[in-house]
Amino acid sequence: MPVRKHSRSSRNLKLAVVLAAIASCTPSGSADFMSPEQHAAQDGSADRARLRALITTRFRDLDHFKDRVSIHYEVDPAAQDSLFHRSSAVTLRYEDRGKTIVRRLASGTNQGDLTRVQDTDWLSKALFVFNNPYAVRKRKQLEVVSLLSRRRADIFGSKDVAFYDLAETSFRHINTPSLAFLTARDSSEKGFINTFNHVTAQAIITSFFSEDLADLVGDLHERLYMPELTTGRFTGRQLADTINNPLDNYVDIINNEIGQMLGLELKDRYGLKKSSVCTPAMLAAYLNDLQRYYMHALQIGLDPYRPSDEVVVKFSRKLNALLASL
Description:
Blueprint: H1 8-23, H2 36-40, H3 45-49, H4 62-66, E1 69-75, E2 88-96, E3 99-106, H5 111-116, H6 122-131, H7 133-137, H8 139-148, H9 153-156, H10 163-172, H11 177-180, H12 189-208, H13 211-225, H14 236-240, H15 246-270, H16 280-298, H17 310-324
């Protein structure tokens, strides 16, 4: 969790007030936004030219993944025996459809560090601020993203929704099972759901906040669960683990980058800025744009989102409430 600036009670009260104000308004469309039907009528050539997102379950193991994505490790020789991997980095290179993603992940601060620093002495806090100025400066936005990433019924009421619910909804929208589910595991959480979750979340963070914040969120998350990603020094148990495997993390890193690319495009298309209000009509159109990408990139069919969908209405209200609280 990010470093907190406000107490939970004061933050919850502020969010409750904003939620009440938003709930009292009737959602309306905007002249700045095109309907899902208008977007669907646009030429899909741009989608066909984009890099294709990756699906973890389409790879047998890490060696199979390396046939598609090159991995280069940079490790300080003096730190080879260090358990903390203080001076290491990994660079992934993914080429597809004539385009290339090069993504470097260095060792450093993770999500857990942001939580633990709150209970340290003043000197440790000062050193943390010195070494992580951007994370400290963006602590409020990090907290907002954290809330968007989790269901928080204590703040937003029963049946709250998060990024994962959007991914699950897109998964349920798949209407071409014979094309989508090439392996039994494709229908598991490690299949389409995980791909949709990372691409969609990173796109939304990029569109409504910034690409830099999306990068930071992704890096903090990946470093927390597997710091060995930057060194490649995995144990046999890690490589055989079906829940927390480095293959999953590397796929996530590539998909995060694709999500950011889409997020930048949609930020420009919808003219999004800090004062933008995300109506259900706009969010449905935005999510349908993402689904159009999924259809072309993954060669599957998807049913569209509608402004009246419960997940769309709830997520748009939650997003607006959190943006208004900044």
